Amino acid sequence: MDYPFEANRWRTRAIVLAAVAALELMVLLGLGAVAAGRMLSGEVKTAARAHELPARKTPPAAAPDRPILERSQTSVVVLNGNGISGAAGASAARVRKLTYVVAGVGNAPRSDFAHTIVMYRDGYRREGQRLAHDVGIKLVGPLDGLRAKELMGAHIALVLGR
User: Fold this and answer.
1) Which residues of the chain carry a pLDDT beneath 50?
2) What does the DSSP 8-state code read for residue 52?
3) Burial of 69 (0-12, 13-18, 19+ CB in 10 A)
4) b/e code 24-55 from CB counts within 10 Å (16+ = b)
5) Alpha carbons 119 and 140: distance in angstroms, whole number
6) Structure pTM?
7) Are 160 and 80 in contact (CB under 8 A)?
8) pLDDT of the residue at 60
9) What single string gives the DSSP state of each residue in 54-121?
10) Confidence at residue 80, expressed as pLDDT on a 0 to 100 scale
11) Burial group, residue 79, by CB count within 10 angstroms (0-12, 13-18, 19+)
């Protein structure tokens, strides 16, 4: 004797249990996505903090009563920031012809400077602007990415770019 009623009952139970299992799977996937999102957002924040630039201190303004140094009293370090061999030496010779004192020639901490820049130590802004004018450079600013001790005692750094 065949009982179609019993077969229907089992099919119904199987469908209901499959629907419950599918719902549980969806809930678990949703919880997993939320947990993964929180973990990844924490990683992104950590990575962003690692790449933050430190707060830049504004250099104090030079005393207006200090006279500007003569070219022959202004020392310049010429740094190769473009990776082209011999570029710093050639520029140093040009700076010497302008009667500046070349305190040293070397490589910049990086070799991917896009533009040539004149950087000055605190209190030597006017000397930096004069050197930039003398050699035809438009970018002038305080030390950025260089420390004063890397200037070998010089007042100004001429960093060569491409």
Assistant:
1) none
2) P
3) middle
4) eeeeeeeeeeeeeeeeeeeeeeeeeeeeeeee
5) 6
6) 0.59
7) yes
8) 65
9) PPPPPPPPPPTTSPPPPGGG-EEEEEE-S--TTHHHHHHHHHHHTT-EEEEEEE-S-S--SS-EEEE-
10) 92
11) buried
